[in-house]
Amino acid sequence: MCGIVGCVLKDDDAAPVLLDSISKLEYRGYDSIGIATATGNTINLKKGAGKIAEVDAELDLADLPGNCGIAHVRWATHGDPSEINSHPHLDENNAIAVVHNGIIENYLAIKEELEKEGHEFKSDTDTEVIPHLLEKFVDEGCDLELALRKTIDIIHGAYAIAAISIKEPNKVVATRKDSPLIVGVGEKEYFVASDFPAILKYTNNIIYLEEGEIVTLTGDGITIKDSEDNILDKEVDVIDWSPEMAQKEGYDHFMIKEIHEQDIAIKNTLAEREIVKKIVDEIKDDINRVAFVACGTSYHASLTGKYLIETLAGIPTEVLLASEFKYSQKSLNDKTLVIFITQSGETADTLKALDVANETSKTLAIVNVAGSSATRKAQYVIQTQAGPEIGVAATKTYVSQLASIYLFAALLADNKELLEKLDKVPDYINEVLENEDKIKDISRKYRFARDFFYIGRGYSYPIALEGALKLKEITYIHGEGYAAGELKHGPIALIDDGIPVVAILPPGDDHKKTMSNLEEVQARGADVLGIGSYGDEDLITKAQDTFLINSEVDDIIAPLVYIVPLQILSYYVAVARDLDPDKPKNLAKCVTVE
């Protein structure tokens, strides 16, 4: 959560570049914005609570002098969203400015000690101890880099930190632990940032900063040192994402643009077949159990993986929430393959679990962001090819994760029939998108609903869960997904007149049973929206509303296609409610704290 950008430019003022760059990190979730630059004997600072556009309209954030600076969007953890709690934070003498992502776990003890030494604090944040520590060490004779080294020896927790000082103009120092931070190398201009989209406009040459490393940016270049203060010569990676990929390109929102990019995302991900086959060939004879570990949307993709691997390959498979993983870790062994799914590759809970699993088991990460922490920690990596996803609610990264899982399961089971079906999925998605207006019309009917229920069986159960999650995330309507057979075991008590129930009914063995569940909710007054296949006369007759999909999409590949109309439904309900689906309240794209 939160976002950092820092830069040292050769000729241009930093503030306009920082504002442009930090705006690209809105998707990470935030409630305040701030920029600081250093000139002469002054830290120039503007910050405030609210959306970037609102704060900028009031303060003119780009109107700050200096070619060196830092910027931050904050998602509140310690202290409410306010101007005083916004980053950057300053030291006692307004000579040092700091931005920070993460949580300083021992900040209270540090704060008490500093207060005894005469330091006065202004905010309620944990972050403010950092500039005061830097000030203390600079006053003792350290330069900013050494002061930062001494500071991170004291603080405990997760952090990405960037700092500037009037005593060392045209310099940014930065470091990280358990929170992402990358270095960008441009033409006589240098950057640090939490994620690629922030700086793609200026450079696609990236260096990955490892934990405990400190980078110093100056007008002459960058210096990176390890925890022992040895200078490192690190490889520069070229990111093949373009700045245009992180733009709306005529769409009203990133979310609907990214829904429309799902056919390409799947096609590109399926093109990784040889890489996946190499992994499968290397491990398939040496595993007797699979465990998926994930959070949120990635957890729903993992549930589909469980059905696939157990059904096709006969290997016992379980799905664990990353935050709950530690309670099952003792069951791992060297015959277990633990598959970690994370869009960003920086999800804190998932990375902690990955560290633990590496001690005993084979680990595989399915990740969308090249070079992210998960890709560097896992023994094996499958790179999804969704491109940058800016909307907070996952769409194309979800189906790309599914595509990777399907590819892995099909190759593990040597199931050529499934591989042939997968090649047709992009076309099926295109057919759904061609009928987008049908879902748009239906969405208007349900925009005032207070509750939604989604039901499905087998492979359709994870679709129900993901459909409900999308609705909750961007419309703020209460939605629940259930295995259809579980309705009678409690949830049916909540069904009442006019409550929408979305029934997911692809052709397959479970169709008749789910139809009977549909009739049960209708008997209690529910309005049913049936997502089924062309020619399903039973569904057409029974449901109040239907959206029909190519009948070749059977139950096994339904998760890749049937989720699309549910994403579209959530999107248009949010729009009809005058909400911004790209920036749902309280949520962040990348959850970097536990």
Provide a descriptive summary of the structure in words:
The chain is α/β, with parallel strands linked by helices. It is 35% helix and 23% strand. The chain is built from 19 helices and 25 strands. The strands form 4 sheets. The protein has an 8-stranded antiparallel β-sheet, with helices on one face. Strand 7 (157-165) and strand 8 form a beta hairpin. Helix 4 packs across helix 5. The longest helix is centred in the C-terminal third of the chain and has 19 residues, at 416-434. It starts with a strand and ends in an 18-residue tail after the last helix. The relative contact order is 0.09.
Could you outline the blueprint of secondary structure elements for this entry?
Blueprint: E1 3-8, H1 14-23, E2 32-39, E3 42-49, H2 52-59, E4 68-74, E5 89-90, E6 96-104, H3 107-116, H4 129-139, H5 144-152, E7 157-165, E8 171-177, E9 182-185, E10 190-193, E11 205-208, E12 214-218, E13 221-225, E14 231-232, E15 237-238, H6 254-260, H7 262-270, H8 273-283, E16 289-294, H9 296-313, E17 317-321, E18 336-342, H10 348-357, E19 362-367, H11 373-377, E20 380-383, H12 396-412, H13 416-434, H14 436-445, E21 451-456, H15 460-475, E22 478-483, E23 500-504, H16 511-522, E24 527-533, H17 537-542, E25 545-549, H18 558-561, H19 563-576
